[in-house]
Structures are given as C-alpha cells and as structure tokens.
Model the fold of this input.
Amino acid sequence: MLSVKSTTLEAAVRDLAPAVGSGTAILPLLNGMAHLDHLADRFGDGAVLGGVAKVVTTLNEDGDILRMAPPTVVLTGERDGRPSARVDEVREVLAGAGIDTPEVPDIIGAMWHKWVFITTLAAVTSLARGAVGEVNAVPGGTEFGLAVLAEAAAVSAAAGYPVPESELGFTARTLATPDSPLTPSLYRDLLAGHPTEVEHVLGDLTARARALAVPTPLLDLATLQLRVHERRVAAAG
Done:
C-alpha cells in the first residue's frame, strides 16, 4: 500500500523496490493519475492496482498521522475493471482493519472523481487563502468555489469520466458549507511553507485540460500561484 504524497513518490519507489516480486500487488493511494504510469513503468503494468483513499488526515509535529474526521474509505480494483481474486483479498485485509472498502466497478473513474474533488478544494483554498467556511463567508465566495468545480468536472468529463450528479452534489455542498473548517493537505502544506503536490494534482490536470481543449482559467491561476510558491521553497533550500 503506497500512501505517500507525490513529492516523495520517487524515494518511496526506491525503498519498496527490493520487496516487489512477481506476485506483488501495489495499491497506490495518491491523488491524481500520473503515478500509475510511473509505477507501471517501474514494476510492470500488471503489478499496479487502482486506488482511492477518502480520509481526512494530517501530520503532527512528531510525525504522527492524525485522523481529523470521518470517513475512512479505501477503494481499489484492477485498472481494466475485471474481477480479481487479489483485489478481493486486499479488500478483506482492509475490512479486517476497520476500513470501509465498498466494491467499485470502475476504479479509474473513481480516481478521476476524487481528483476533481481534491483539485477543486486545493484550488479554492489556495487562491482564496482560507478554509472552506472562510471562503463562503465573503461575497462571491460560494460562486467562486462552484466555478472552480465546474472547470475540474469538465476536464474529467472530456477525458471520458463524467462525475455522477450525486458526487457533484456532494462536492458542491461541501464547498458551500457555512463555517466549515475544511482545508486540504495541499493548502496546509502551502501555509506551512512546505513543498506541495501542485504538479501531480493541479499541473497534470491543467495539462490534460489543454490537450482536451477544455478552458480552465481558475485552475490555471491556482497552478501558477502554487508554482511561484514552489520556486520560493526551492530557493530557500
């Protein structure tokens, strides 16, 4: 189970490589999609499952992972959608640890839909420099959040993975929740002056948007702003 951020993916790949054999299944839980090709190139296409984590966690000063709110859900499946005994085994292990693991018919679609959710939250909070509730508390804040969501959802739809209305509605309600303290980890990293997952989460999505001829001016602006931050972090060294 590979649950690092994209900023440490390469180091994690080096660390886990000696443990990967012919029967190993790798379950990556990173946001976005670019890591799938990277892992498949390194370990073989058949070794890599699709995966989605729906958790709200952060690191404390001691490096412990803190669960900040429910739920605890991990989705997984073969990337081609076929039934798989190894996926059933992985889900059984996760369920035994108290993790909800519902069956999902299209794990790649689920990954795209999570990507839309997390990209929207990251762009909204990073551009507005505030938690969801703080954005909603000012005139135009809710409308701004919904406009960002529309851009991200349009990219997913153009790629062949339209976000179901139920999930769009959930994200829209999340964005419009009054007084919500919700912030994504990318935004928390930004405020702390740490490197962020801008390229893996926003940069890759906006690049795909351009390839698909989908206009994403708000997501482009968020990507630009975060890239400036990355340069400052790198310069500070």
Q: What stands out?
A: Strands lie at 50-59, 65-77. The chain has two domains: 6-105, 108-236. The chain has a mean pLDDT of 94. The chain has ten helices and two strands.
